[in-house]
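INFO worker-7 received task bundle
INFO bundle size: 2
INFO processing item 0
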Amino acid sequence: MGELRRIGILTSGGDCAGLNAVIRAVVHSAVNTYGWEVLGIRQATQGLMTRPPEALVLTPDRLDPYLTAGGTILGTTNKGNPFAFPMPDGTVCDRSNEIIEGYHALGLDALIGIGGDGSLAILRRIAQQGKLNLVGIPKTIDNDVAVTEMSIGFDTAVSVATEALDRLHFTAASHSRVMILEVMGRDAGHIAMCAGIAGGADIILIPEIPYTLDGICQTIQQRQEQGKNYCLIIVAEAVRTESGDSVILAETNEGCRLGGIGQYLSQQLCSRINAETRVTVLGHTQRGAAPTSVDRLLAAAFGVAAVELIAHEKYDQVVTWQNRKIVSVPIAEAIAQYAAVNPAGTLATTARRMGIFLGS
């Protein structure tokens, strides 16, 4: 403990607010407390596959200006599984050993991986294969990593969506319109649920709770009968059509890109209700904002805790936030399941008691 070490850090998967704040916390803690050298790996695992590996020395002075910056100064990728990496000739190749070799070429004693469940699963498999010392930090705006109450980026995404609802209130009321706000949420509806309650939505649609178009129309009609001339609907991108089909924006080599449920709802409602509908899709604006104070605090706590795990040689662990404190758990446990919104949980009950329509 406390010996001179060289550690690496990378960001993997989709970007989000707070990544630079995590990197900054790791560097401050590692350099100032233990005198270690910290190398930032470029473009996630792709930086370790490059020859020579793409890395840069990180210092506290270099990181301080990026506390409030969105994105990640290291770059990231959510494409190209190293165990089945797409090659120029159309074939796939297992390049995991190249990542292991890159780790050793940089002389790393340990690696901190910041990512969601998919990224952490890949990093752990590589670490197990190469006997690398790995510590994980959870980040996902979807907040669907089951073992932590909060992940980096979630609070900022909710704040962006809440602000959008705040602004849509006025234009909806001015024109007597139904405003549909489509937000991210690949598997879970945490952003839609939290922002919907905080932003005063009248209808919240999430993938965990089924709905009917008739139920939505009845809610809008009831509001009109009460003299309320507008309605705000927030919907997670993973919500399916009434018949159960996913709404897909595009097909890629990496899979399906969700998107378009807001437009689907608008088209279905326009012939059923006596009101104009408009759709706003937030998309990547939820990822690119400056991190909120909550995300900055969480980033600091996670970064420091990850360094402490390395100092005590506790590897194959991910740091989590539970009951207002940091708790480390095995990475395997963290990626074993995802945290969906509980249809009978506190937030869903809160929404229903406040008169918000959630579906059936």
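INFO item 0 finished
INFO processing item 1
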Amino acid sequence: MAHYTIRKRFRAEQPVFCASVIQKNKGKITFSKSKTHSSKTAAVKWAKNLVSQLEINEAMHHLGLKEMTLGDLINEYMKSKEKSNRPLGRTASYSYKTIIKYPIAELVSSKIQSHDIVQFCLQRKNSEHNPSPATISIDVSLIRKVLRIGKSLLGVHCNQQPVVEAYQALYDLKLIGKSTPRSRRLECNEYDKLLNELTKKAQHHCNQIPYVSIFKISLLTCLRISEVTSLRWSDLNLARKTILVRDRKNPNGSSGNHDEIPLLGNAIEILWTSHSLLDTQ
């Protein structure tokens, strides 16, 4: 059981208030912490919050929840997703593998505070990769995800509240934000330069990838490279001049999100040429 005491002292003739929190188990002290405040109100607030947290931790212990570092929690979550009907996407998987390389991954999940989240974002921003606020925002959302479902999915003592409390500071420091709209287009002879380099790469004696065809189809269809390379011949409809794109990226999940798109220009001709090249290799 945890309890607190407030003692009034004087420092440089000014009153200060020392708050002490002690937790005992069968008569033995299992936790003790003190902090001095300039006002009694602040001291009482700090002590009550700490007592409340200690009681929550004790309740979690009685419920049989286990302690686990954030890094281990992420690894266990990734394993669970691999065995599920909805595995992690490439972006989420890469982001989680990046997160566990940072000091925050060594912290016990139940002990993570809002300032730990802010420190992680500062470390990410100042890393050699210098990620954008939008990228860091994804990292924070992924951390929040495992802290939110860790209890129900893996029986781990964790809570998403520290992430929620950190958002105000993260936005104030502009560490996280929305992605910048893209307006970049090919200019001057950039298309020819890309085409020439891809042609050279495709002509290498060890190559079996139709780089040029992938490049042209991605421009004509506005599909991602992963979507282009996942197209199936069985989904090609020559009569309608369309093709079915499976598992298109979507905020609600790509799995099962299929979309039939038109094949404009000489897209069909490019596909058949690519098919012929593969057959001869």
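INFO item 1 finished
INFO post-check item 1: The chain has a mean pLDDT of 88.
INFO post-check item 1: Residues 7 and 118 are 33 Å apart (CA to CA).
INFO worker-7 idle
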